[in-house]
Amino acid sequence: VAVIIVTISTNITLSLGMVGALSIVRYRTAVKNPLDLMFLFWAITSGIAIGAQYYYIAFVAWVVVTLALVFLKRIKGGAGTYVLIVTYCSDPDVEEAVRRCLHKQPGKFRSKVVKGGSTELTMELYLKTDNLNITQPVQNIDGVQDVTLVEYRGNLEA
Fold first, then answer.
1. DSSP strand pairing (144-151 vs 107-115)
2. Helix or strand or coil: residue 118?
3. 128 SS3 class
4. Who's near 48: CB < 8 A, 6+ residues apart?
5. What is the DSSP letter of 130?
6. CB 68 within 8 A of CB 35
7. For the segment 2-35, what is each residue's pLDDT rounded down to a tens digit?
8. 68 pLDDT higher than 80
9. CA triplet 45, 48, 51: central angle to 5 degrees?
10. Which pick of 9, 57, 97, 132 has the fewest CB atoms within 10 Å?
């Protein structure tokens, strides 16, 4: 937004034209990923700056956005979102053992479903691709019937 303001603040004709041009831009679908939204605003900002012949402002915006994208990618660390589903007998000791086994994993518990004599625990995990052997220690717990790990690329709403 600061780049757009700096670009259009020097010329009233350009600022009125940009207000009209930006009012045309609309998104047909909701953008759920913040990085995608950041890229869209950066593309609009760069287009305005280059169209107004403020190449140095477009270059500075490019450097800042590139650094931000690299920084945000490193924070995420290549971790993927996974859903772990553990089915076990309805025994509080087994549930406690499962939770103890998973307590160091980054993520959160999503649901617990009790059906008859078995319980299904669902957890959202953020794992690096080289750390997918989390199912084996959980499977080795006495009373655990099934462990399923699924990679998830959508949104899990709270």
1. unpaired
2. strand
3. coil
4. 3, 4, 7, 8, 18, 21
5. T
6. no
7. 777 777 777 777 777 777 766 766 666 676 777 7
8. yes
9. 145
10. 9
pLDDT range class, residue 50, cuts 50, 70, 90 = confident
Q: Which domain holds residue 23?
A: 2-76
Q: Provide the 8-state DSSP code for 54.
A: -
User: Which residues make Cβ contacts (< 8 Å) with residue 130, sequence separation at least 6?
Assistant: none
Calculate the alpha carbon distances from 122 to 69, 83, 87, 119 in Å. Answer: 31, 7, 9, 10
pLDDT class of 157 with cuts at 50, 70, 90: low
Task: Say if residue 88 is in the same domain as residue 110.
Answer: yes
Q: Which residue has the higher pLDDT, 96 or 17?
A: 96
Model pTM above 0.90: no
